[in-house]
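Following up on my earlier thread - several people asked me to post the actual chain instead of describing it. Fair enough. Here it is, all 157 residues.
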Amino acid sequence: MLKQIQEKIDERDNAAYVEFAKGDVETLPDKSFDQLTRELKQVREDYRKIDYLIAKANTDHIFKWEDGDLSIAEAIELAKQLRGEAILLKRFGVRKPMERIQAYHMQETIYRKALFDPGKLKERAMKLEKKANRLSMAIEKQNHQVEVEFYEADKYL
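Reply from S.P.:
Thanks for posting it. Predicted structure:
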């Protein structure tokens, strides 16, 4: 539906002005600016309805997961959090346990020692990533089982 909104915006932009040479008769667009504004308003209203219905379905539909029962909305957020944490842990996981830091303004050698095991964090990151993927598949499965009644859909199919 976002595509239809953008198409209506573009169509209205094209209908906003008419160009013609002096002495020529201008050719008006098939639809008026006002008509396209009304159509755009309707598509936006329909989009808000379907967006609300999807959000409601995402909070109303619950499924079982390792951490307990989750709504689809909670599961989506959990998947994002798992992926985000996996990215952060991977960054720590590729570091060396001990690094020499080259400081040009200091005379002495400085070392940076990790207060964690990079190998274990990298392994934990991979597990989190797999868990996020499993959760995403479970969300997708739920989404295929959930039906939303949106009678205006025929206008957009």
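The longest strand covers residues 62-65. That should answer part of your original question.
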